């Protein structure tokens, strides 16, 4: 693929998911664009068994961009890493097409597995800022992982996951996360339950105050 064609394709991907970009030439300033060029080169060396050369390229890219992608990772088309600082992608990670990662995301291993040690992200997955996905399981297509979540087990397709540990809070038959890049306002049933308890507690307190006032009125009436 020619550099200009690659530039245009990357611009289309970024424009779709980042409203801050205005010119195709701005793509050159995006850490995601620069690190992916180096990753593709390092990955070719890795597949040929040139491991030191592959790691040398990837580590230089990590120092320059703040994004660490192991050259052994398998990455599809249209990956977009927004901002990118602190992103780590492990050796046996598999990433499908049109995946979006935000800053501080870790796709790591749990230290207990051998062979396939890192997660698989299917097409159209979005992983929000600071989320950690740890282990050799699969995140189903079209799923969203909420900011700061820690995911330790498999996620079915078309799901929204939040919390520590991550839990599915929403599942739909058809949903493409790239239609909405909002990775902040995700549902949180625990928070909803807490609000309900607080509301019910306030109602009980108010009722007790009313009963106390009624008792005082009755006592005054008896004395009178």
TrEMBL record:
Q: What is its EC number?
A: 2.3.1.30
- What biological processes does GO assign it? cysteine biosynthetic process from serine
For whether the record's keyword set contains Metal-binding, the answer is no
Give the metabolic or biological pathway: Amino-acid biosynthesis; L-cysteine biosynthesis; L-cysteine from L-serine: step 1/2
A single GO molecular-function term is: serine O-acetyltransferase activity
Q: Is Chloroplast one of the keywords?
A: no
- Kindly list the GO CC terms recorded for this protein: cytoplasm
> Which top EC class applies here?
transferase
Q: Which UniProt keywords apply?
A: Acyltransferase, Amino-acid biosynthesis, Coiled coil, Cysteine biosynthesis, Transferase
Q: InterPro entries, per this entry?
A: Hexapep, LbH_SAT, Ser_AcTrfase_N_sf, Ser_O-AcTrfase, Serine_acetyltransferase, Trimer_LpxA-like_sf
Q: Which CDD domains match?
A: LbH_SAT
Say which domain of life the source belongs to: Bacteria
Q: Which family does it belong to?
A: Belongs to the transferase hexapeptide repeat family.
Name by which UniProt lists this protein: Serine acetyltransferase
Upper lineage is: Bacteria, Bacillati, Bacillota, Clostridia, Lachnospirales
Which gene underlies this protein?
Answer: cysE
């Amino acid at each position: 693929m020619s550099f200009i064609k690659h530039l245009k394709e990357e611009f289309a991907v970024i424009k779709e998911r980042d409203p801050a970009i205005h010119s195709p030439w701005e793509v050159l300033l995006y850490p995601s664009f620069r690190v992916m060029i180096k990753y593709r080169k390092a990955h070719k060396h890795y597949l040929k068994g040139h491991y030191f050369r592959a790691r040398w390229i990837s580590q230089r890219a990590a120092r320059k961009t703040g994004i660490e992608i192991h050259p052994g990772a398998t990455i599809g088309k249209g990956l977009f890493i927004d901002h990118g600082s602190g992103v780590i992608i492990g050796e046996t990670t598999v990433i499908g097409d049109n995946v979006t990662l935000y800053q501080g995301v870790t796709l790591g291993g749990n230290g207990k597995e051998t062979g396939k040690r890192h997660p698989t992200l299917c097409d159209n997955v979005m992983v929000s800022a600071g989320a950690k996905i740890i282990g050799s399981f699969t995140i189903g297509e079209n799923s969203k992982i909420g900011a700061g979540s820690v995911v330790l087990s498999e996620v079915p397709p078309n799901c929204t996951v939040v919390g520590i540990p991550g839990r599915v809070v929403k599942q739909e038959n058809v949903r493409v996360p790239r239609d909405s890049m909002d990775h902040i306002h995700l549902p949180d049933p625990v928070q909803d339950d807490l609000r309900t308890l607080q509301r019910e507690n306030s109602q009980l307190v108010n009722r007790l105050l009313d009963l106390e006032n009624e008792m005082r009125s009755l006592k005054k009436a008896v004395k009178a």
